[in-house]
Amino acid sequence: MKKSTVLLGIVSSLFFSNLLLAQETPTNEDLLKRIEALEAEKAKPKEWDASFYGWVRTEYNFDSRQSAYSREMHLNLYPLDEKLDANGKDINAAGGSNFLAITSRVGIRFKGPDVWGAKASGNIEADFFGNTELNKSSAGSGSMGLMRLRHATATLAWPKTAVTFGQTWYPSVVPDVFPGVANFNSGIIFNPFGWAGQIKVAQKLTPELTLSLVAYKDREFQTANATGASFNSATFNSSIPTFHGQLQYKTKTVTTGLGAEYQSLKPVIESAGLVSNEKVNSEMFFGYFKYANDKIITKLYGITGGNLHHLVMLGGFAGYTEPNGQESYKPTKTSALWVDVASANPKVAPGVFFGYTKNSGVDAGFKNLYVRGASGARILDDVWRASARVDFKQNKFNISPEIEYTAATWGDLNAEGKAQNNMKDVGNLRAMVRVMYSF
C-alpha cells in the first residue's frame, strides 16, 4: 500500500510539472516578439548618455637652475637672471627636483534630448592643480592638491552652426595644434594657455572651412595688476568682453587657420584720488598649421600682439603719468613661435619641440611696467626652448622621458621696456619622466 501511494505521488508530481512547463515554455512566435522588442529598444536613441574619462598622471622633474615656475617647480617658464652673492657666486645656479601627481584629471561628457532642433551635449573636467601658489610666508600650500575647474561647457549643434557657452580653452588655444611635449608646461610662454568664461559661435562655411566668433572674459589667468588693482580687477572693470575671430580649414591630414582678437581692459576705477576711465587696449594676431598622417605629425604656431600676459606669455602693459597725475596705459609687444614634429607610431613615438619668444617693448616714457619677464631693473630680451622626448605606449598606459633646455637672455631695462646693456645668457636643463594611465 505504501509503495502504491509513493508511486502515485511521483507520477502526479511529474504530470503537474510537465503541465506547468508546457504553460511557461514560450512558443516560437513569443520568442520572435521578444527579439523584435529588444532590437527596437536597442535601435531607439538614448535620451541621456554620459561617459567618464581621465588619467592618473605622475611626473618627476629635475632642474639644473632656478626658474620662474608655479606649483612647486611643476610648471616651469624661463630660467631666472643671474643673482650674485657677496663672493660673486650665482645664487640661482642651484638645481632642484620634485615628484608630483597633481595634474591627474577626471571628466565627464554627456548628451541629452535635442534642444530647438540642435544636438545638445556638455562636458565638465577638473584636475588637482589648484588655483593658488604655495604661500612662502607660512607652512600652507595654497590650493595645491585641491580640485580645480578646467572645462564646464554646454553645446547646441545644428547641421552647420554650433553654439558653446561656459568655461573652456582661450580661443587662441587650438587643441588640434597643441605642443606634444611630455612636460606639463605644454609649451607655455610660446603657446597660449588657459581657460576663460565665454560664448562661442562656430559656423561651417564649407565642409572644411569654419568661422568662429568668441566673446570671453579672463578667469584663472589674467592680465598683470596695476598699482591699486586687485586680482583680475582689470577684467571685471571692463564693460565689454574680449572679442575673437578665427577661420579654420580642416581636412583628414591638414589643419590650418588664422585669427585675431581685440581686448580692452580697465586696470583701476580710481587713480590719483580721481575717477579713472583709463584703459589698456590691445590687438593680437596668430596663425597655425598641422600636417598629420599615419607616419608623422608636424605642427607650427605663431603669435604676435600686445598685452599677452593673460595667455601666460611674456609681456603685459606699461603705466604713464598724465598731467592730472593719473596713470594711463599702453600694451607691451610680444611675439612667439614654435614647431613640434613627432612620430605617429602607436607604440613608440619620438618627438622634438622648439619654441622662441621675443620681448619687443613699449613706447618710451613709462613710469611703471606691469609685465611677466621682468625683475627689478632687469628684463628678458628673449627666450628659446628645445626638447626631445619618446612616448612609450601600451593600451592606455604611457611612459614619456624628456630632456628640455630653456635659455633666456636678460639685460638692463631701458626706456622702451627692452633689454639693453649688461646682457646675460642663462639656461636651465630639465630632465623629466611622465607616467600616465588613462581611462
Give an overview of the whole structure:
This protein is mainly β and 439 residues long. The protein folds into two domains: 1-44; 49-438, Porin (Beta Barrel). The protein has helices at 2-24, 28-43, 233-237; strands spanning 49-63, 67-70, 75-79, 96-100, 105-115, 118-127, 148-157, 161-169, 195-204, 209-218, 242-250, 254-265, 270-271, 274-275, 280-292, 296-306, 315-321, 327-331, 333-343, 348-361, 368-372, 374-375, 378-394, 397-412, 424-438. The strands form four sheets. A 16-stranded antiparallel beta barrel has the order 1-5-6-7-8-9-10-11-12-15-16-19-20-23-24-25. Strands 18-17-21 form a three-stranded antiparallel beta sheet, with no helix packed on it. The protein has a two-stranded antiparallel ribbon with strand order 2-3. Mean pLDDT is 90; it is low at 1-11, 13-23 and 136-140. Keywords: Signal. This is Porin.
Strand and helix map with partners:
Elements lengths: L1 H23 L3 H16 L5 E15 L3 E4 L4 E5 L16 E5 L4 E11 L2 E10 L20 E10 L3 E9 L25 E10 L4 E10 L14 H5 L4 E9 L3 E12 L4 E2 L2 E2 L4 E13 L3 E11 L8 E7 L5 E5 L1 E11 L4 E14 L6 E5 L1 E2 L2 E17 L2 E16 L11 E15 L1
Antiparallel strand pairs: 1-4, 1-5, 1-25, 2-3, 5-6, 6-7, 7-8, 8-9, 9-10, 10-11, 11-12, 12-15, 13-14, 15-16, 16-19, 17-18, 17-21, 19-20, 20-23, 22-23, 23-24, 24-25
Protein name: Porin
Keywords: Signal
